[in-house]
Amino acid sequence: MKTNVNTARATRSTPLSPAELFGELLNERQAQRPQARVQPTETEFYASVGDALAAVAPAGSTVYAVGFDSLDGFLRAGYRVSGGDADVAIARGGEREFAKARTVRFRKLVLAPTHAHAAAASPVYRATDGAFGVMLHGDKPDAAVFDKADIDRNLASVFGELVALDLCAFDLAFGARMRGDAPDVRLCAEVGALVSATTAALKNKEKNRAAAAEILTDAGMKAARLVERVPALLHASGAAQTAEAVRMLYAAEERPLGMRGETEMLLSAVMTDFYVKNLGGDTLAFPPDNNRRIDSVCEYFNTDLRRACVYMSAVYPPLKMRLCEYRRAEFRGEQMKLLAEVKNRQAAAKQVFKRLYPDDGYGLKTLVEKPDLGLCLSLAPDVFAADSMLTFLKQTGRLDKYMV
Question: What angle do CA 156, 377, 119 make, to 5 degrees?
Fold first, then answer.
C-alpha cells in the first residue's frame, strides 16, 4: 500500500522539522513525475519493421505510427494503435515523418526511412518554423529499419542525398578552420570513400532497380552511422542552405519542386564551382546589408518579419572578419585540394545520378530554374543556419550583388 507524507508523519513519535517535511514533500513530487527517457548510446539497425518493433517493445504496447499506408500489421502483431502519446513512436518515410513522430511522448523511437537514410540514427532532425526550416536536437532513435524492399521509387533522389554529404563534410572542415579548430580529416575521407564506392557499385546497374535499391540501402546504413557519429554533418553545406531557400521560394509561389535529394545533388555541383571561384582573391566588399536582406526574405519567401529577423545571421565584427580572411588565405591550398576531390567525385556521381531516371536525366533541365539560383544562393545563409563557406561569403558582402 502506498504511504503518503501525512501518514508517514503521523506514525512517527518525533515530529518532522520544516526542512525535513519539505524534503519528503519534494521526494514525493519527484516520484510522481514521469521518468525521463533514457537515450540509447547507439541506434540498432534492423531489416524489417516487425523485427525492430519486437526488439524494442512487447506485444500489447501502444504504437504511434506515422507514414504507414495501413495500420493493420501492427494490430495483427498484437500492438495497440494510438493517436497520440504511446510506448513506441514509429515513422516511415523521410525527415518530415521523422519530425512528426517526435511531436508525441514515447518511450521508444523507431525510424524506417524510405529515403533520407542518413537521418535515421541521428538525434538531430529537420523541422519547420513557419516558412523556415530549422535543425533541432531531440531524441535519438532506439532502432532504425533499412528494408531493401521498401525504398522510395525515386532512387536518384536517394542517391543524391548520399552524394550531398560530400560537400557537407567539406563545409564542416572549412568552418572548423574559420573557428581555429582542426578539421575532421577522417570524416572527409570516410564520406568521400562512401560516395566513390557507391558510385562505382551503381555504375552499369542504374536500370536494374532491385540491384540499385540494395546498393543504396546498404550505403544508406553506412551514411547513417557517419551522421550518428557526427550529427552536424546533416544538411551542413551551402547546397543544403540553398536547397532550403529554393524550397521556400517555390512554396511561396506555389510551384512544384522535386525531392530534396535531387535539389541538393544539383546544387552541390553549382556550389562547388562557386566555392572554387570565391576561395581565391583577397579583396573585401562592403559588409552585407542585413536590412535589405530581411526585406528580400519577407518579399520573395512570403515570411513574417519577426521570424526573418530571428533567423538573419548577424554580421561579424571587423576584427573577427579580418581573422577569418587571414585563415581563408592561410589554408587556401588545403581547401582547394579538398574541393578538387569533391568536384571529381561529383562529376562521376552525376553520370550515375542521371541514368537512374527513366528519361536519363532529361527532366533535370527544368528542376530548378536558373533565374532562381542567384536569388536563393544570396539569401540562403539567412533562411537556414549552417557553419558553411556560403555563410562566410555572406559576411564578406560578396553575395549581396546576386539579390534582385
Answer: 45
